Amino acid sequence: MTKIFSSLLFLLFITGWELFCNISGVSKLIIPAPSEIGIVLWDGLYRGYLWLHIWVTSLEMALGLIIGCSIGFISGLVLAENKFLRDLLWPYILASQVIPKLALGPLFIIWFGFGMTSTVVITALICFFPLLENTFTGVQYIPPEKRELFRMFRASKLQTLIKLKIPHGLPTILAGIRVSVVLALVGAVVGEFLSGQKGLGATIIAAQGMMDSALMFAVFVIITIVGLVFYFVATVVESFLLRHHKEGTFNGKY
Amino acid sequence: MGFVSIKDICFSYDANQTIIKNISWDIPKGEFHTLIGRSGCGKTTFLKIVAGLISPTSGKISIDGTTVLTPSHRTGFVFQTPTLLEWLSVIDNVLLPLTISSKKKPEYVDLGLNILASMGLKKHTHKYPNELSGGQQSRVSIARALITEPSLLLMDEPFASLDAMTRQDLQIDLLRLCVKRKTTVLFITHDISEAVYLSDKIALMDSGEIQQNFPIEIDRPRKNEIRYSASFNNLCSDIHTCLKVYHGQTDEAKSK
Hints:
The complex is a heterodimer. Chain A is mainly α. Chain A has a single domain, classed as Orthogonal Bundle (MetI-like fold), CATH 1.10.3720.10. Chain A has helices at residues 2-24, 34-46, 51-81, 83-98, 105-112, 116-140, 144-152, 157-195, 200-209, 213-241. In chain A, helix 3 runs antiparallel to helix 4 (83-98) and helix 5 (105-112) crosses helix 6 (116-140). Chain A is globular. Chain B has a domain at 1-74 and 181-256: 3-Layer(aba) Sandwich (Rossmann fold), CATH 3.40.50. In chain B, 38% of the residues lie in helices and 25% in strands. In chain B, the strands form two sheets. Chain B has a six-stranded mixed β-sheet, sandwiched between helices. The radius of gyration of chain B is 19 Å and the shape is globular. The chains are: A mainly alpha, B alpha/beta. At the A-B interface, helix 7 and helix 8 of A face strand 6 and helix 2 of B.
């Protein structure tokens, strides 16, 4: 029932928007009508103009996610397991995260040049911290009885990490991946604003140059769909991995 | 000297607060001994010291002549809650101690299946903990503790959260398995009737000290009906009275 109301709300919004554009006489340069956006979107997809950009942004997002999340996960484990390294490195990691990553964009362009590499590096940097923070938290907070159980089994530190801490912390770690997925799209698109020649971010900049608001809105729609697809894949993977965990863990639905 | 020999064990977190005071205890091989006392009297701390999870401030524990310094593969521990790993199936939970000690061989899988069958869990072998009832989860945790065939089983109020009927069934199964395997047991509970039904000897603990011992001279094997006999209930009543007396004395001493 809620889904029907949700769909009706969307239809109402689109209809209201269309009527507003037709009646108010607002320049289509400022707010294009949904029908016009739909035509541009269909045209771009049908003629294949947008597919390359969708592919590039998706690839940058996926690479940034994989690299950033992998490094974040491993760093989270290392910091959780080694107090010396935690005390040594934490202030620097925190400082590196306080700097807005996008402000580093121009520097990355000098280092890695225009194109995909710079965008992937920005995306990876953005995805790194949620995974580090969530992995660190997830593997730290293990019920004392379960820790004692593993001590009774005389499990090594590595066995306790692999067989207890990581599986137990998985719901928290996977929640970090969901946050990273959303941030990765921001990283990829804004990275393309700065350094991209291809991709959805670069298309928005090109559309801005041509004062083509309808194309911009069409790209917004695609970005939203790309984000939702990535998020959906993350929740499906999460639901699969957590299928035996206690009830109350996130199941992809709110 | 008993199979389990506990000599003058003391434990304190700091100089002002002594948790365990000078406990000595001998448990002969194959006997079932129970420590009974109110919540917060130091029972769990004592059990963890015997398990080697906590080092005593002074005193010595030995199992079959070997001094306990760290947890041993010869000791099984059943916690207050089942502490099952919810991402592992029932059989994998039971085999976990062997997986960790790299002993998971086909014959051990058969051993795990046999233990599960003897606990009435054969048809739940491939289920996951969240698909089991509280009683079934407790059975799995006992099966897991028994898979390494420990000579000493330490149990910390394992049936505390279960309903009365399930608790009685588990007590019967536990006694049967321990007699069959000649397992020595040190059990903790605050349920007097459970302690009397299961034990060869009960020690009453209050404020970190063993206040009194009660040998239980009820013939084995024990049928469920003995719970309703006059002698059984008189024994429960005596222990209950002592528990109240010692607790009252402690409260009085504290108020002074």
